[in-house]
Amino acid sequence: MKRHLLSAGDLTRDDAELILSTAAELRDLADRPIKKLPALRGRTVVNLFFEDSTRTRISFEAAAKRLSADVINFAAKGSSVSKGESLKDTALTLEAMGADAVVVRHGASGAPHRLAHSGWVRSSVVNAGDGTHEHPTQALLDAFTMWRHLGQSRPGGLEGRRVAIVGDVLHSRVARSNALLLQTLGAEVTLVAPPTLLPVGVETWPVETSYDIDRVLPGVDAVMMLRVQRERMNGGFFPTPREYSRRYGLDARRMAALQDHTIVMHPGPMVRGMEITADVADSERSVIVEQVTNGVAVRMAVLYLLLGGNESGA
After folding, report:
1. Which of 164, 242, 284, 310 has the fewest beta carbons under 10 Å from its own?
2. pLDDT over threshold 60, residue 273
3. Is 13 a catalytic residue?
4. Closest to 191 (Cα-Cα) out of 224, 238, 150
5. Is the peptide bond before 33 cis (omega within 30 degrees of 0)?
6. What class does CATH assign to 8-135+292-307?
């Protein structure tokens, strides 16, 4: 692996499979009474979150603590950042604290790349979501969840598996990272969304696109529903929430059209009744809660490989 994890597109297939296999070993910790390893004792991990987050920040915090690292949580609200401090000055402060890894979530696309390549810090930088750009560890935990259900017992893992990602692709950093990583792992991805919620340039992504969810669903092995990010919208991207739900929501009728082995996923937070109904979210097909558990194992694997088990990385 490289020194930083900034984009799912930076991972080779060997890199991705190393993270997934390491996560599989660490996943067993979740079922033990004592969920701790001494692998990163003496290391310091800083969670630097310029955007609100609950699940991702807590997941990284749990991952670092289970590896015995020291954790510093830095939220922009109520900090010097809210008083006008720049990313550079914040980075220099973290460097002075001796951070070994900085986990960054930022509203501006490219901010983690800027931090990693600026020379301001010597620590490893992990992108925990930048604007509408990418969220590589979410893609890794999604791929790990798919692998556990669809690829663990077959040669080639996820090679040839078909995945539908449905909903607000335009504003989703999760969709972009998943498209890149799943293609690297050999899966076939179809993005399903209204034309207004597909990004400009999507034809250059390694995916197929469709406007018709009912045509796509019967042929997929996994379906991932995306939240409509209305907080990022300043125009009319669809007529009404009810119309969106009718055209692109996953309900019991559509779930019945899936193959018997097909799993239902969601990166969270869910808007029940909008992109997914409560009965589908809570069904036996749903692996949404498992994704959260797997997220801790995958982030443990990333931190371990960046800081402890990857001495040859460049």
Report:
1. 284
2. yes
3. no
4. 224
5. no
6. alpha beta
